[in-house]
Amino acid sequence: MDASIKQLLKGVNLYLIGMMGSGKTTIGSLLAQAVNYSFIDTDEIIVKAAGKPISDIFTTEGEPAFRQLESNVLAQVCAYTKLTIATGGGIVLRRENWSYLHHGLIIWLNVPVEILLERLKEDQTRPLLQDPDPQSKLRSLLDERYSLYSQADLHIEITQQETPEQTVTNIVQAIPRVLKTPVEKSQN
Ligand SMILES: Nc1ncnc2c1ncn2[C@@H]1O[C@H](COP(=O)(O)OP(=O)(O)OP(=O)(O)O)[C@@H](O)[C@H]1O
Ligand SMILES: O=C(O)C1=C[C@@H](O)[C@@H](O)[C@H](O)C1
Ligand SMILES: [Mg+2]
């Protein structure tokens, strides 16, 4: 790892936000390795704790119950440092979650709907995408959430089919632009 990134980050957590399929889980794991952090995924923690897949939680307990579990997990993880955290696509929806996210550096993976659709066309694990018209569903979710995702500290625009490794390189190169020191971040 580049020693200057380590000095700059000072253990501050990296939160990946963005739409389902934007690559938070895939890229988060690689980004953690790149900056020598541990990796966690709020969706995975919820699935392990509940003992059932997210689609089952949505069906049996409903989306509000899932959102509460998500906030509980986020509240717990933000107490730790040196983490790269892949969040669920809807983490931005609750105002209280932002107070946790702002403990760290928030990175938005901004991926066009066409690419999301291509990645997720065979997917059955995302309950909100089990819709007769997944493209319109993704568009309306993105419209609803766009201004929320925009509140991230760092916007990573993915405009073409780039590899996860290229995206990680872009993120690592962009971090110094938004995080000169942790003090500056807290003053923004
Ligand atoms: N360049 C890429 N970057 C990231 N993911 C990619 C890329 N190309 C293809 N994928 C694939 O896209 C799919 C969705 O990625 P991933 O599960 O990481 O998204 P996510 O943002 O964590 O979604 P969710 O919010 O539903 O958890 C995966 O199957 C992943 O392998
Ligand atoms: O975008 C969303 O609302 C979701 C994304 C996934 O990460 C999961 O958290 C769940 O499928 C809901
Ligand atoms: Mg994920």
From TrEMBL:
Keyword Transcription regulation listed: no
Binding locations of ATP: G21, S22, G23, K24, T25, T26, R126
Keyword annotations of the record: Amino-acid biosynthesis, Aromatic amino acid biosynthesis, ATP-binding, Cytoplasm, Kinase, Magnesium, Metal-binding, Nucleotide-binding, Transferase
SUPFAM superfamilies, per database record: P-loop containing nucleoside triphosphate hydrolases (SSF52540)
Recorded metabolic or biological pathway in which this protein acts: Metabolic intermediate biosynthesis; chorismate biosynthesis; chorismate from D-erythrose 4-phosphate and phosphoenolpyruvate: step 5/7
UniProt superkingdom: Bacteria
A matching Pfam family: SKI
Transferase in keyword set: yes
Identification of the protein by name: Shikimate kinase
Subunit structure: Monomer.
Chain's gene name: aroK
Function summary: Catalyzes the specific phosphorylation of the 3-hydroxyl group of shikimic acid using ATP as a cosubstrate.
Catalyzed chemical reaction(s): shikimate + ATP = 3-phosphoshikimate + ADP + H(+)
GO biological process, one term: aromatic amino acid family biosynthetic process
Enzyme class: transferase
Protein family: Belongs to the shikimate kinase family.
InterPro entries cross-referenced by the UniProt entry: P-loop_NTPase, Shikimate/glucono_kinase, Shikimate_kinase/TSH1
GO cellular component, as recorded: cytosol
EC number: 2.7.1.71
